[in-house]
Amino acid sequence: MRIKKFTARTEKEAIAKVKNELGLNALILNIRKTKPKGIFSLFRRPVTEVTAAYDDKTGKKPEETSNEQLAAAARETAVAEETEVYKRQRDQIVSLEQKLFAQEQLLSKLTDQLSLNGLSNRSQGARKYDNRVIQVFYDTLVAQEVTPEIAEKVLEDVSAIDDESQVDIKLVSTVVYNTIVSILGPAEPIEPVRTKRTRFVILMGPTGVGKTTTIAKISSILMLYHNLRVGLITADTYRIAAIEQLKTYAEILGLDVDVIYNSQDLENHLEPIVDQNNDVVLIDTAGRSHRNQENFKDLAELLALLPDSTKYLTLSLTTKYEDLLSIANAYSVLTDYKFVFTKLDETSDYGAILNLCYLTGKRMAYITNGQNVPDDIEVAHPENITKALLGIGGAHF
Ligand code: GDP
User: Does position 311 have pLDDT exceeding 80, yes or no?
Assistant: First the structure.
């Protein structure tokens, strides 16, 4: 099975393109409208994007295709290539625009908030700083559910200027922005490159946070966009549905799933798995209650077998912050890890990300923002999350 995307002005046109190019048996995986980005986006219409899967072994043979169809296919390939170039250019422009506008947005938001505060003399919490600019930052961070202690830490350097007469909005906002970016640190996703040795990546975390879906998203991206060889293992044998779910995604990608019931099983499977010459092997684990250390025993055994693996602690941002913190602490006792934050689409409060990165010192890898495989995942950009925390943008684009 292979996956391909088609875009057109309408859903009907996009599906017609799929059928025309891939034949009637192509499987439609996902249909969505995408909004154009960038400064001229207001003038551009949304497009419909259809993701389709097809079996390249049973695809149409060239001799069955008429000259007319071949010409149509050639036209479509040219359009697809143009779209690819256009997409790359658009992404570059978007990223430049974002950098340019971040500072201006921050300043204009601050100015608005300062004049509002000035008019009503009302602040969300008790007034903490004499300097109104710093107070606005404090209120914004706390409203995003950054804990008051961590908000104070972020503002430590700038709060030395606790004097109205020295308000330099630009300086304060630059320092605050950079402080948050550096607390979050650069993301550490899977390097999408070939390596000599197979890399193992283990996804851990509570039930229902999106581990299996995230594995499906990551493996699709590594395979389809980076041409890497990917292997899948599931140790989530408590839920039959979990195995079936991963197998369904695996089937679309043309992969097998190794099911392991205990660490002994993994030990037996390791050699053949490594022999398959995969670049990356992703391992799904069963959700565990962080309050029951007994539950962690089999996970600890599995981790011990793969000491060089990368571990991702998957956490849903819809979980209560106190629970997120105790989950992160419980897993810290067990192993080192990086964060995958899921379900950003279901919240507008991102404070927990900053709190957890600050308190654990761990780095982020990915954020996920919806149920669509493979689209709703991205490498966590500290700049985007910082902007969201300061109220000047979403944490994902
Ligand atoms: P697991 O038990 O941790 O493996 O979780 P699953 O991968 O089975 O996901 C549980 C549910 O969360 C499923 O309905 C997924 O579609 C959904 N889900 C996963 N990631 C996201 C996300 O980023 N946003 C939203 N809204 N739902 C998600």
Answer: yes
Given the CA of residue 314, which atom of ligand 1 is nearest to it?
3
Alpha helices in the chain (DSSP H): 11-22, 67-120, 132-143, 148-154, 169-184, 211-224, 240-253, 263-275, 297-305, 321-334, 351-360, 382-389
| Cα-only R_g, the chain | 24
Best mutation site among 371, 372, 377 for ligand 1 pocket (most ligand atoms within 8 Å of CB): 371
| Distance between Cα 179 and ligand 1 center (Å) | 32
Residues with Cβ < 8 Å from 396, sequence gap 6 or more?
344, 367, 369, 378, 384
| Sheet strand arrangement including 338-342 | 257-259, 230-234, 280-284, 199-204, 310-316, 338-342, 364-368, 377-379
Q: Compute the Cα dihedral for 118, 119, 125, 127 and give only its sign.
A: positive
208 C-alpha to ligand 1 centroid (Å): 6
Nearest CA to ligand 1 atom 9: 210
* Angle at 359 (CA atoms; ends 316, 130), nearest 5 degrees: 105
Max mean pLDDT among 25-29, 225-229, 315-319, 347-351 falls in: 315-319
Cα 186 to ligand 1 centroid, rounded to whole Å: 25
Classify domain 199-389 at the CATH superfamily level: P-loop containing nucleotide triphosphate hydrolases (3.40.50.300)
Q: What is the pLDDT of residues 184-207, one digit of tens each?
A: 999 999 999 998 899 999 999 999
Give, as one character, the DSSP assignment of residue 26.
Answer: P
Query: Which has the closest alpha carbon to 154: 380, 351, 362, 364?
Result: 351
Does the pLDDT value for residue 256 go beyond 90?
Answer: no
Give residue limits of the domains in the chain. 2-80, 86-183, 199-389
> d(Cα 219, Cα 196) in Å, to the nearest integer?
18
Which residue's CA is minimally distant from atom 5 of ligand 1?
210
pTM: 0.75
Mean of the per-residue pLDDT values for the chain?
A: 82
What is the CB < 6 Å shell around ligand 1?
207-213, 242, 245, 287, 342-343, 345-346, 368-371, 376
Q: Which of 204, 213, 342 to mutate to test the pocket of ligand 1 (most atoms within 8 A of CB)?
A: 213
Q: How many angstroms separate the alpha carbon of residue 368 from the centre of ligand 1?
A: 9
